[in-house]
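Fold these two proteins, one after the other.
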Amino acid sequence: MAESTGTVDLEGDRRLDQMFEVLSHPFRRRILFRLSDHTPYTEGELPAGAIKPGGDEPNVLAIQLRHLHFPKLADAGYIEWDDSVDIVRRGPMFDEIEPLLGLLHDHQDELPGIGPQTV
């Protein structure tokens, strides 16, 4: 077991908090899972229209994706979203969240809200 130095990694804490915040919504989890190595989209790029969350009206969901979820993921650096060609791809910080996505994927049967519809 590593010995504690008594220092606090505030930047590390902030980044971890951001990961949990991003993963707190099922649409954002679905987007990140679709871009991870655990899906057929191994090129790390997909049409934004491929994100098909079930439930509400499709037009409302499209607006939420474009005005809330894609920008939040892009601001965190987890995706790059090219609205002009309607493509979502892995962002420069995607590698930071990918281990957490792998952990969620590996334990999807044990975790609520993480299942085949998400992964």
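Now the second one:
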Amino acid sequence: MSNTTASDVDAISEMLVSSADLMWRHLADRDELSASATLVLNRLHREGPMRVTALAEAEGASQSGMTQLVQRMERQGLLERCGDPDDGRACLVQVGEEGRRLWDARSGIRKQRISGLLAGLSDDDQVSLWLAARVASRLLDQMREIADTSAVSGGVVGG
């Protein structure tokens, strides 16, 4: 589709906005975590241990705000500190045992809810959606990379 029209872009944009909104409102289990704690847990699960300063920068948060959030999540057992193998004087934050348990539980709930929604689709629609999800995943990976680069550089990238 080399001749992408404004209408095509609008449709894709609306789908992404609706998806993000519905993720928070229907698919995510919001009972146990705030949005910011969920984003931190998600990033650490996806990227592995990080310094608090890098985590704050990546999430667009202040150092002090991230420190407070990390301390609160540590007290809940969601996060834990470990030594930095590259710098013995520093420490990293990683997902703790309770964080892994919560991540797995939330993932199970999300998958259960999606499975229930898929049950209402025809086999052909399920296959079409699966194919579209593969393409959308590549687009979302690119968006995540742009967002992460933008957070680190403090500017808009690929805008």
